[in-house]
Design a protein that fits this description.
Layout (H helix, E strand, L loop, with lengths): L1 E7 L5 H8 L3 H9 L4 E8 L3 E8 L4 H16 L5 E4 H12 L11 H15 L5 H20 L9 H9 L10 E5 L3 H12 L4 E5 L5 H8 L2 E2 L5 H7 L2 E4 L10 H7 L25 E5 L16 E4 L1 H6 L6 H34 L1
Parallel strand pairs: 5-6, 5-8, 6-7, 8-9, 9-10
Antiparallel strand pairs: 1-3, 1-4, 2-3
Helix pairs in contact: 4-6, 4-13, 5-6, 6-13, 10-11
Length: 355
């Protein structure tokens, strides 16, 4: 039996998602894998969702499900995870992998995150034959959606949407100094999106101290570990995308770098609206981290516009209805085929046992 336990931006606030994303996916998977009746476990944790996919032994599914709930309660407290089983779990994963459940419908990063979730479970030998089949089919479905529909043709992403919104304050990206905080995969994606817009002045700072290698590989300027405050004062755009469990920028850091401040103020909910003048430019902070990388108290500092995940979600474009419906039909067909293949496999196994 397949079981999916899920919390995402569609049904859970970003504060709660931040707490979930701070959990070690490996530890969660390890904890539930030890529950009697659990054959395999895969954790999918991104900036917009936390999901646990399980295969349970059919004859012990009730006791296994209860054991999983207890194990999760020990780690999460009162669970905010919603349950989907069997065909619903499969269709959900296929839709997630195809970008249909993302903040920006059709974004392409999620497919890579799904592949990495499976690889991580394989590395720790926590998968099962059915979970392997489920995730491989999800990846195949994403490719079918991409080839058979127009969804995702423009490769939208949270990074690019955040930069689109920041453009209200940035008339000429080529002349704007940018501070990038983070050195992981998302930082690489963010840097590519910045360069697509013509950005040439990029500094990078890493809370983990691993910025030197990133700076050398990508030919950007490294900020010393103690130089963060000064770097925030030099930047007109600050983009954060780290997995740090604590905020890395707050009002104190900004004020330390800019003691005189500037004249205008933008609240996060107004960050997509132009404020300020050429004489008093606004510094845009784009927080793509979850847990959040930027303390909301930065809004108290003059001349700061904060775009966090909640603000970006409010401005996410409506999905293209025709392409989205075509994509969902591909997903439904794939889920039906997956269920049919599973049924045929069960019947074949039963015949083998009878023989």
């Amino acid at each position: 039996m397949l079981l999916c336990l899920t919390a995402s931006h569609r049904d859970t606030d970003f504060t709660t998602l931040g707490h979930l994303s701070a959990l070690s996916g490996s530890e969660v998977a390890s904890g539930v894998s030890g529950v009697p009746g659990v054959r395999g476990a895969v954790v999918l944790s991104t900036c917009n969702r936390f999901e646990l996919y399980l295969e349970l032994e059919e004859h012990h599914r009730d006791t296994a499900t209860e054991g999983v709930r207890q194990a999760l309660t020990e780690r999460l407290g009162d669970s905010v995870l919603h349950e989907l089983s069997q065909a619903d779990a499969a269709e959900h994963l296929f839709a997630v992998t195809s970008g249909l459940e993302s903040v920006v419908i059709g974004e392409g990063e999620i497919a890579g995150q799904v592949r990495r979730a499976l690889t991580e479970a394989q590395k720790h030998q926590r998968t099962s034959p059915e979970l392997e089949r489920l995730f491989q089919k999800a990846i195949q479905t994403q490719r079918a959606v991409k080839s058979r529909t127009g969804l995702g043709a423009a490769r939208p992403s949270l990074v690019r949407l955040g930069l689109d919104l920041a453009s209200y304050h940035v008339p000429d990206w080529a002349s704007v100094p940018v501070l990038l905080i983070g050195t992981g995969r998302y930082a690489t994606t963010s840097l590519a999106a910045l360069r697509d817009r013509g950005v040439t002045q990029v500094e990078v700072w890493s809370p983990s101290g691993r910025g030197a290698d990133f700076a050398a590989r990508h030919q950007v300027t490294l900020v010393s570990h103690g130089g963060l405050a000064a770097a925030t004062a030099r930047a007109r755009v600050i983009l954060t995308c780290t997995t740090s469990e604590r905020t890395v920028i707050d009002a104190e850091v900004l004020r330390a770098g800019r003691p005189d401040g500037v004249a205008s103020v933008a609240r996060s909910e107004d960050a997509a609206c132009p404020v300020g003048t050429d004489a008093s430019p606004v510094t845009v902070l784009i927080d793509l981290g979850l847990p959040r990388n930027i303390n909301p108290d930065v809004a108290s500092v003059s001349g700061i516009a904060l775009l966090d995940l909640e603000a970006i979600k409010l401005h996410a474009p409506l999905e293209h209805l025709a392409a989205s419906e075509d994509a969902r039909e591909v997903v439904r067909e794939a889920a039906a085929a997956f269920a049919q293949a599973g049924l045929e496999g069960q019947l074949a196994s039963a015949d083998d046992l009878a023989a």
